[in-house]
Amino acid sequence: MTDNEQAIISQKVKAYVEAKDACTEAYANMDWSDYASLDTYRGLSTKALRMNPEHYQLWNIHKRVVAKMCELADADAAHQLLQGELLLTRLALYGPGRSNPKVYSVWYYRRWVLATQAERLDPASETQLWQTELDQCWTDRALKNDPRNFHLWNHVLEVRRRLGQVDPEAAGAWAERVLEAGQSDASWFHQRALIVEPELEACRTAEDGAGRAAVVERELFAVAGAISDESRSTGPWVYLVFVCRFIDALTSDIQELLEWIVTEGCGLDGDGPAGDIKGRIIRLRYASRALGSLGSGADDLLTLVHDALDKLQ
Predict the structure, then answer these.
(1) Core-most of 73, 142, 185, 240, by most CB within 10 Å?
(2) pLDDT > 90? residue 312
(3) Does residue 157 contact residue 193 with C-beta atoms inside 8 Å?
(4) How many domains does the chain have?
(5) How confident is the model at residue 272 (pLDDT cuts 50, 70, 90)?
C-alpha cells in the first residue's frame, strides 16, 4: 500500500469516527418530543451510515428516531420521510463507489420502512408498494450480478408474502417469473420450492396423479438444466431431494430424467463433469438420499451411486 493510499484510508477512518461521535453527542442531547431535534440526529446518523452501513446498533437507533418522527409528522411529511429512508437503504446497498448488498442490517431496516409505509396506505396503494419492490429486486444489479445473494432472496420472500396478503394474483404472477428464471443457486431453488410445494400438495389432495407427475417432470427438467449449467453447485441437488419426495410413480419420462441427472451430474459415465473428489462425494450423497425415497423402482440407479461412493470414500 502506498503512502497516498494509506493517507486516504486514514482520512476516511477519521471522518467516520467524527461522524459517529457526533451521533453519540446528538443522541445524548436529543429531545424526543421535538421533530427538529430528531431530524438533526437523523441527518448525522444518515451521514455515518452512508460511511459504514454495517453498524447495526446505529441502524436500530436510527429506526427509533424515524419511527418517532413519523408519529409527530402529518401524513404527507411521514410519506416523504419514509421515501427518503428507502433511498438511504438503496445507497447503502448499491451506492456509487461502495456496494454492500449483503449487509443484514440494511435489509432488515428496508423491510421495516416498507412495512411502516404499508400501514399508512389503502389496499390498492399497498399492492403497488410491494409490487414495485418486487420489480426492483428482480431488476437490481444484485440479482443480475450476484444471484447467490441470499439476503436479497430472503427479502424477496418476505415481500412476496406481504404482496400475497393483499393481492394473491400479483403474488402468483411473481411466482411464474421465478419459475421461468432458470437460475441455479440454492437461494433461488429455495424460492422455487416454496412455490412448487403447494402445487404438488394440491395435486396429491385431489388425487391427480397425472398432474403431479407433470409438475415433477417440469421440476426435474429445471434440476437437469441447472446441473448442466453448473454441476458443482449444491442447490439443484438439495432441490432434487425435495422433488423426489413427491414422486409416487416412476414413469418412463421421470426415470429417464433421473438417470440423466445422476449419471451426468455425478460423472458416473466417465464423461460428465466429475469435478473434485470431495464435490463428487457430496453430489453422490444427495443423489443417494433422493433415490432412496423412491422405493425399489430406482434400485439399479441407486446401486450405481453406492458403488461410486464406495470407490471414492
Answers:
(1) 240
(2) no
(3) no
(4) 1
(5) very low
